[in-house]
Amino acid sequence: MTRSLALGATLAGALLMWAPVDIPLPTLLVWNASASAPIGLYRVDPVSPARVGDRVVTDHPPQVADLLAMRGYLPLGVPLIKTVAAVAPARVCRSGETVSIDGTPVAEAKRADRLGRPLPAWSGCRILAADEVFLLTADVADSLDGRYFGPSAKRAIRGVAHPIHVRERRP
C-alpha cells in the first residue's frame, strides 16, 4: 500500500468515526417513567403530524426545562410524553384553575405541587396559531402540561409516540 493511500484510508476512517457526532439522529425509542402516560417503552414516529388525541414525545422550552430539573421533576434533556388536546384554530383558556378548550372545561390546575411549592400559572384565552399545540393529559390530575405552561410550539414535538410495551395505569 502506498503512503498516500494509507494516509487517505486513515483520514476516511477518522471522518467516519466523527460523522455520527455531527449528524442529529431522530429519537426512535423512548422510555417513559412519568405518570402522565402509561409507563413503558414507546416507538417514536418523527414523520407523522400530531393530531388531537395523539400522545407525542416533546421537549419543554429551556425555562420550563430548567424549572422541572431544579425541582427534581425531570432531568434536563429528558423528553416527555404528553397528549395533544388541541390544535389550531382551537381556543384555549385558563381562568383561575379551570382550563377549557373551545369553551368546554377540560381540566383543573393545582396551585402548588405536593411539597407546597407554587406551580406556574397562565391566564386568559388564546386562539392557537398554526405552529402551536396545546398539550394536556386531562385524565392525570397532577400532569405538568399545558394547564401550567400554556400552548407549546409544534417544533418542540419529536414525534408521535406509539406504545411498544407499557404498563397501563390502574384506576
Question: How is the secondary structure organized here?
Answer:
Layout: H1 3-22, E1 29-32, E2 39-45, E3 55-58, H2 62-70, E4 80-87, E5 91-95, E6 98-101, E7 104-108, E8 124-127, E9 132-135, H3 146-149, E10 152-153, E11 157-167
Antiparallel strand pairs: 1-2, 2-11, 3-4, 3-11, 4-9, 5-6, 5-8, 6-7, 9-10
Q: What labels would you give this structure?
A:
about 20% helix; serine-type endopeptidase activity; LexA/Signal_pep-like_sf; four-stranded antiparallel beta sheet; Umud Fragment, subunit A; seven-stranded antiparallel beta sheet; about 170 residues
Count of β-strands: 11
Name the helicity range.
10-25%
CATH structural class: Mainly Beta
CATH architecture: Ribbon
Q: For the terminal residues, how far apart are their CA atoms?
A: 69 Å
Strand fraction equals 25-35%
Separate helix tally: 3
CATH topology (level 3) name: Umud Fragment, subunit A
- Class from helix and strand fractions: alpha+beta
Order of helices and strands: HEEEHEEEEEEHEE
The low-pLDDT segments are none
Shape: globular
**What's the domain count?**
1
What topology, given as strand order, has the largest sheet?
Answer: 1-2-11-3-4-9-10
Radius of gyration: 20 Å
Q: Give the mean pLDDT.
A: 86
**CATH homologous superfamily (4th level) name:** Umud Fragment, subunit A
Please, what is the oligomeric state? single chain
Main β sheet profile: 7 strands, antiparallel
InterPro entries: LexA/Signal_pep-like_sf (IPR036286), Peptidase_S26 (IPR019533)
GO molecular function: serine-type endopeptidase activity
Pfam families: Peptidase_S26 (PF10502)
Domain Peptidase S26: 28-162
